[in-house]
Amino acid sequence: TGEHAPRQLMQIEGTRAQAEFIDPQFAPKLDSLTYPQFFLDIETLRSVIPAHKGAKVNGLSLFQFSIHRRDVPGGPLEHTDWLNTEPECPNVRFLGALRDALGEEGSILIWTRYEEASFKELLADLIGDGVESDDMCWLKRLLVSDRVVDLHELCFAHYWHPHMVGRTSIKAVLPAVWSEDSPVKLRVPYNEFPVDADPYGTLKKNGDVSDGCDAMSAYLAMLSGSPEAKQELLRYCRVDTLAMCFIEDYWRWRLRHSNNGKLIASAELSAA
Predict the structure, then answer these.
(1) In the chain, which stretches have pLDDT less than 50?
(2) Which stretches within 77-226 are classed as H helix?
């Protein structure tokens, strides 16, 4: 019983069968997403000792974003990103660049509501500072729209894989779906990664930034003059949004071969 009962049942049945499960009701939810689609990830820093001129004690600094854009179903992905390299607080410039990239239409896909929570805090800070701008008005419109869609919530409600070991973070879901022998891995740009090593695993193997804590440390190193840290940040944030793209593409492929949502052993789809 309770609000998590369907998820718990999904995990119990999946664990018993040691097989993947994808809810057939997932398909119409994915099909309801509007285009262009924007897969968005941001990186932030919060520090008791401000890292930027004009930043507040324990204030949130939004220093980076990555976006993969898709204009039509099944279409190619276009990547854009932004990374602050200036000593001043980046928040206003971050917002301007984000607005330019996202515009007024299309679904914005995130993993968990962290981006949304960060945008709300940014808006509150700007209002508290007496800032009034077109970019701030855009942010207000965005936050009351239905454009932002949490892929994590969709995963929690509709998808289970034994390799996730009960977790639904993107760093658990991506290796799980990557472990499947799907033709999705052969598509551009996913084929730039080894078929036997998911993108996060590839970053870690190469000693690059591979999680949010590493990203904060690399950002501080970059501000202190490290060009290597800058390149690692750009690679990591790009992988975050590419991971969401791959997971969605994999889900769509899986739904086409899901046997009406019944539990399916991995080997059954390896040649599909």
Answers:
(1) 261-272
(2) 91-102, 114-128, 134-144, 151-158, 170-178, 199-205, 212-223
